[in-house]
Design brief:
about 75% helix; single chain; mainly alpha
Length: about 90
């Protein structure tokens, strides 16, 4: 028997939204630990967001408002990764 909001694979709509949000923020699918960490960090918002957030129209509105911010955050993350990579090369050399 499926739990509330679960699909045949045991995933919930919340799980899918957490994964999509992670992808928008970081540009890649989360590892299991990254997913668990993000899901735990937003768990306290779940009752408050509830049905408002989970309606497709609401979700699309939020994502469209977030998109410009996400692009800026992705650029910051790319710059940080370049700095980390350069530091790692210096340490190895």
């Amino acid at each position: 028997m499926l739990g509330a909001g679960q699909d045949g694979n045991g995933r919930t709509l919340t799980d899918d939204l957490v994964k999509r949000t992670f992808w928008l923020l970081h540009g890649h699918q989360p590892s299991e630990s990254e997913f668990d960490e993000l899901k735990a960090s937003v768990a306290e918002l779940s009752p408050e967001a509830g049905a408002r957030w989970l309606q497709p129209e609401s979700t699309l509105r939020v994502l469209s408002r977030m998109r410009p911010k996400v692009e800026a955050l992705r650029e910051i993350e790319r710059q940080r990764e370049a700095i980390r990579s350069a530091r790692d090369k210096e340490v190895v050399e």
